[in-house]
Amino acid sequence: MRERDIKTHDGGNLALYSYGTEDAPGERRVVLIGGAFLTALIYRPFSIALSKGLGEGWAVDVYDRRGRGQSSEQPHNYSMATEIADVRTIMDATGARNIMGHSLGGAVALNAAQAFAGTPHQPDKLAVYDAAVNIDGSMDTGWIKGFEDSVNAGDINQAMAKVKRGMEAGTALARVPEPILVGLMAVVSRTKVNKLFRDLLPTGVGELKAAFDESDTPRDFAVLPPSTHFMVGKKSPQFYKVTAARLNRAVPGSTLEVSPKGFHGSVPAAVNELVSDISDYFKS
Questions:
Q1: Adjacency order of strands within the sheet including 255-259
Q2: Which of 59-63, 130-134, 213-217, 227-231 has the lowest mean pLDDT?
Q3: How many CB atoms lie within 10 A of CB 187?
Q4: Contact between residue 237 and residue 169 where contact means Cβ atoms under 8 Å apart
Q5: 6: helix, coil or strand?
Q6: What percent of the chain has pLDDT over 90?
Q7: How do residues 103-138 score in pLDDT, each as one tens digit?
Q8: How, if at all, do strands 13-20 and 59-63 pair?
Q9: Which of 51, 118, 139, 199 pairs as cysteine with 20 (C-beta 3.0–4.6 A)?
Q10: Radius of gyration of the chain from its Cα atoms, rounded to whole angstroms
């Protein structure tokens, strides 16, 4: 693994971690954009597995987005435009020609590819798994205000409960009464992963609002590369399945793949089936 500190256009920095062949050419490099409440370190098992699946001569570049890991905090004027500029910065630093996004990182990847259409930064290949994009109201975003209020009030357990219910609508967890879920969050928050989740909640307010405050319509993404590959887990919450299907219909020439054993956390968990499918897509 190679670790670098990349300067941003606004004077910040992004912590970048590269796996695989260090001097891989741009057409054999994949920029991995992680989801909300997760650091690049969480994606290390997947990054290693994907670089091995891609084979000799390939590299995977994953970075800490603003407000996590060793990267700068979110600036006062943070928005999706900040995320798009950071993707451009990472592509310039690595020369990468391919992008993959997971969950909210999928929203960043799609918005970046849309902004890059017709420019030298337009990716050769683009893949997203369980992209967290609000397409024609595919997600009820009414919970975000309550989530923000809970974070600002310092009620972390309640904030965790609200984001779990909001992001996993339709699942058994989302049907748990909120007072009971709040108590459950107080218990599970002692685990290492959930402690990280708690620490990143303030950052999550900004990125969730940037991704979901305005509902995007499918035609906004019609300019995406025709080779765009939409992936979703069969066991993932319904929101992600609806979103993937709508995006697939909106992007001519794109493909949609449902991972039979896939769940929302399949990417950071480096599920073998998914790693193999993604490797095949980028190598094909």
A1: 2-7, 13-20, 59-63, 29-33, 98-102, 125-129, 229-233, 255-259
A2: 213-217
A3: 10
A4: yes
A5: strand
A6: 66
A7: 999 999 999 999 999 999 999 999 999 999 888 777
A8: antiparallel
A9: 51
A10: 18
Structure tokens at 57: 């001569």
Spatial neighbors of 257 by CB under 8 A, at least 6 apart, are 229, 230, 231, 232, 277
Terminal Cα-to-Cα distance of the chain (whole angstroms): 25
* Run of H or E including 5: strand 2-7
Pick from 6, 7, 8, 27: which is nearest to 17 by CA? 6
What domains can be seen in the chain, in order of their start residue? 2-136+215-283 (3.40.50.1820), 143-211 (no CATH)
Sequence-distant (6+) residues with CB within 8 A of 68 are: 38, 39, 40, 200, 203
DSSP helix, strand, coil percent of the chain (3-state; round to 5): 45, 15, 35
How many CA within 13 A on the CB side of residue 132?
A: 25
Q: What's the pLDDT tens digit per position in 225-245?
A: 999 999 999 999 888 999 999
